[in-house]
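Class prep. Write one:
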Amino acid sequence: MKKEAKKEIISNVHWLPNLLTTASLFSAFYSIMAALDGFYEVACVTIFIAMIFDTLDGRVARMTKSVSDFGAQYDSLADVVSFGVAPAALAYIWALKDFGRFGWLAAFIYLACTALRLARFNAKANVSDKKFFQGLPCPSAAAVVTSLIWVSCKYGFNNIVIIELSLLFICMSVAGLMVSNIGYYSFKDIDLKGKSPYIIGFLNTLLLIAVAIDPPLVLFVVFFIYSLSGLMFTLYKKSVLKRNRRKKHVK
C-alpha cells in the first residue's frame, strides 16, 4: 500500500511543472490576443510573465525530482510559442508590418531562429557545457525585442521611423545570435542555497528597486547588455589568443 501511495504522489507531482509550462503557453497566447487588439503594453507584460513561468517549471521539476522526457519536449514546444511566435507576432503587429515584405520576413527569420536554437539545445542537452549556453538563449532574445516595444509604448515612441528600424535591426541581430556558436553564461552554477558575498545581495536589491521604478527600461538595458556580453567576451578571447600567438612568434 505504501509503494502504491508513493507512486501516486510522484505521478501527481509531474502535473506541477507541466502546469507551469501550460501557464507559460497561455501567457504567450494571451500576449498574441492582446497585440491583435492593440493592447501592446499588456502583450509585453504577458511575455515576461511567460518567462517567469518558464523559469519556474524547470526548477520545480528538478526540486520535486519529476524531470521527464515528456516535460522537456512539452517545455520546448511551449518555448517556441512563448519566445518565438509571441514576440514575432507582437513585433510585426506593432511596427514591422510598416516595412512590407521585409517586415514579415524579419519576423519569420526571428521565429525560425528561435525554433532552430531550441532544436540544437535539445540535441546537445546531454553533451553541452552547463556553465555556458551555445548561442543567445531564446527568453533573453524575446526579452530584448519585447522590452524595446514596452519602452517605446510607455514613452510614446510609437510610429517613429528610427524606433521601427531599430526594432527591425534588433530582431535580425538577436536571431543571428541565437543560432551562433557564441557562448553565454548560464548562471546555472550559482548555488542559491549557499552563502554569497554581501555585495551580491546589495546589487540584487538595487536591481530589484530599479526594476520596480521603471520595469521596461531597466529590463531592456539588462537584457541588451546580456545579449552583447557573449559577443564581447568572444571578441576578447580572440584578441587574447592573437596577442599570445604574436608573443610566441616574437620569441
Remarks:
- Residues 2-250 form a domain with the Four Helix Bundle (Hemerythrin (Met), subunit A) fold (CATH 1.20.120.1760).
- Strands lie at 132-134, 183-185.
- The longest helix spans residues 215-250.
